[in-house]
Amino acid sequence: MGERSLPRLTAVGDRHDERGRRGAADAVRPDLERTFRAEYRRVVGIARRVLGSGREAEDVAQDVFIAYGRASVPAEQAPAWLAVATAHTALNVRRSDARRSRRESATATADWAPDVAEEVLSAARRERVREALARLPRTQALVVLLRHSGLSYQEIGAVVGISPTSVGTTLRRGEQAVRRELDSDDTPG
C-alpha cells in the first residue's frame, strides 16, 4: 500500500490553486493585523458591555474580525464599521441567548435555584440593563451602545445612517426607555 498524500496545511488566506498561485478570494487584507491590534480591546469592550461575559465578548470579536477580513470596508472606516458590527453581533448573541433562556426556563424543574452571581445586586442590575437594551428597537440599542462606547454623535450618525441631531434624540429616547424599565423593576409590588 502506497503512502497517502496529505492535504497541505494552510493558514487562512494562504490557499493556492494547483499552479501555486494564491486565490484572490482568499487574500488577507493588508490592514487586518494593524486594525486588529489597534481595535481589538475596543471591540471586546463593546461586546462585553452587551453580553457581560469576557469569553463571549472574545468570541464576538473573533467573528467580527473574520467578517472585517472579508469585507471591502475602506481602512479609514474600520473603527466605526467594527463598532457597529460588534454591537449588531453582540445584540444578536444576546437575543439568541434570551430566546434560549426562555425555552430552557419553560422546561425547567420547580426546584431550580438562581446562580449565586445573579443575586449580587450590581450583576443583577447590569443584567437588567442588557435585557432592556435587547428589547429596544435596533437603532436605539445601537445608538445607546455606540455612544456609551465612546463614539461621537457624528460617528454614530455616519455608521447608523441618521443625522447627528437624530442621534441625540434617539439616544435620549433609548436611555429613557432603559431607565423606565429599570425603575419599573425596582418598584415593589
Arithmetic mean pLDDT: 78
- The number of distinct β-strands equals 0
Biggest sheet statistics: none
Low-confidence stretches: 1-23
Rg, please? 21 Å
The structural class is mainly alpha
User: What's the end-to-end separation, in Å?
Assistant: 78 Å
Envelope shape? globular
Question: What is the overall number of helices?
Answer: 7
Task: Name the helicity range.
Answer: 55-70%
Q: Could you give the order of the helices and strands?
A: HHHHHHH
What does this structure look like?
The structure is a single chain. The protein has 7 helices and no strands. The protein is mostly helical and 189 residues long. The relative contact order is 0.09. Residues 1-23 have low confidence and may be disordered.
Give short descriptive properties of this protein:
single chain; 189 residues; mainly alpha; 7 helices; globular; disordered N terminus
